Amino acid sequence: MASESMQAILSAYKSQGAKTKNLGSMEEQREGFDRHMAHLQLPRGIVTEDFFLAGRPARRFQPNGLETEEVVLYLHGGGYRTGSLDSHSSVMGHLAATCNAGVIGLDYRLAPENPFPAALDDSVAAFVEICTSFDAHKTMIAGDSAGGGLALACTLRLKEKNMPLAGCLALLSPATDLTMSGDSYGEFRELWADDCLLYSGDYPLDTVGISPLFGDMTGLPPILIHVANDEPLLSDSIGLERRATDMGVTVELKLFHDAFHCFQIFTDLPEAQDALADIGRFFKLNIRGMVGD
Q: Which of 17, 80, 95, 208 is the most exposed place for a label (fewest CB within 10 A)?
């Protein structure tokens, strides 16, 4: 049964529905997202450091005093137009705790000022630079929503260039199909369509870097997918699991009932804590070869 806090959020979402497009200017939307997430805290014992990675602002989250050979590159969600190191600070800190490893968040360029392929170029460049200090196979690329799609697109681009791949991917309700060919979008379809066009710019929506669902996934590392069972982007996850599995990729698809899109980033929810612990399990299994805690 869902926690009281989860039930309250689900009730609010149900009454709200797919809201109007009158969301303010892009700057106001970005600031609003950051404010909405500002109450979420880092777990105890996590230290942070701001730095530049491949020319972009980045933030490292690390258990205090811990030095490991493993790392997570995290790509935040926000429809490719919002989201930041601040909005996703708490989830990245909790990932560092549950993985017992460093997590690096990337401030990739956002649309509409910087449409495709800016975010993808930034992500690939960041991963390549990370691999000058860490073995690629000792890294995990993770992301939520647009960031989850970007993590997959980044991996496909690396594969295309015959470059080393991460040891595994953790994708939270990933946006893998910006053509919206699935049937789960409902009233969200019209709102998401605008974001997709802002991001795609002059490129067709079925471009693999934009809609990585259509890429050749042969040879990709193991993938963990988390998605709510009745959310708008469910089709993106179901389609990815089927296509990747058909191409021989090891995929774990976990459907969450009584949940909502990217609930994991709301780290004060008990359900988010459980989901993040599952990502930690997946990381330890595929990066460290550890079974169990």
A: 17
172, part of any domain: yes
How far is the C-alpha of 58 from the C-alpha of 241, rounded, in Å?
A: 30
- Contact between 221 and 166 under an 8 Å Cβ cutoff? The reply is yes
CA 94 from centroid of its chain's CA atoms:
14
Total domains present in the chain: 1
Q: What is the CATH number of the domain that holds 168?
A: 3.40.50.1820
Please pick, among 90, 145, 184, 200, the residue that the annotation labels catalytic: 145
pTM for the complete prediction? 0.96
Report the alpha-carbon distance of residue 253 to residue 12 in Å, rounded.
27
pLDDT at 74 over 80: yes
Q: Is 28 marked active-site?
A: no
16 lies in a domain?
no
Asked whether residue 108 is assigned to any structural domain, the reply reads yes
From the list 211, 231, 235, 271, the catalytic residue is 231
CA 172 to chain centroid, in Å, comes to 5
The first and second tokens of residue 107, run together, are 């401030």
Cβ neighbour number for residue 197 with a 10 Å cutoff: 14
Q: Is 145 noted as a catalytic residue in this protein?
A: yes
Instruction: For residue 146, give its domain range.
Output: 39-286
Instruction: Say what percent of the chain tops pLDDT 70.
Output: 97
Q: Which of 274, 214, 285, 219 is nearest to 252 (CA)?
A: 285
On whether residue 18 sits in a domain, the answer given is: no
Residue 278's φ and ψ, nearest 5 degrees, are -65, -40
Predicted confidence (pLDDT) at residue 17 exceeds the cutoff of 80? no
